[in-house]
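Apologies for my clumsy wording, but could you write out the amino acids of a protein and the tokens describing how it folds?
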Amino acid sequence: MHPNGSPLREEDIYSKVKAVERERRVLPATNGFRRAAVLIPLAWKGGEWQVLFTRRTEKVQSHKGQVSYPGGAVEPLDRSLEDAACRETYEEIGLAPDQIRIVGRLHDYPTISDFVITPIVGLIPWPVSFQVSAEEVQRVFFVPLHWLADPTHFEERPYLRQNGKVEPVIYYQHYDGEMVWGVTGRITVNFLKILGMLSEP
């Protein structure tokens, strides 16, 4: 839903993402940074748009136990960022690339773990079954877009990095026992602004 109460249509998602894609911020993966791609999976579920998130296991190398979008590092065999996001999504939750309708790319984001992340928006079917990788993913869950777009459900707080630098970080309230925060929270908030569901400060 838009703030004015009108429903967010599929064509709205396409047009708004494509508008950003034409002028999106692209960051070079240099100075030790690696390129990565994540999928923002949107499903029409329960009469509204919902976003799929995963909670990572304690077995993964980085961001153990954290909520994230499916995705990961771009590998040499990946033909594009979209291929990388879809491959990682399939490896993590068993959602095949032909089940994902790619909408477009959003702005690049640097992370504290030395990655440059490109979010890829994709529409996925519902209902759909998942084959979750026990090594990588603890849980798959959905959060409604309208809940994420409620400004009372998140805040920006200072975060002290290991190098002593303080950065503003997005923290959502818990939803279904899970908390979206960090770069995932930042990508989510900016995506909602692109959709017109959150106003710029």
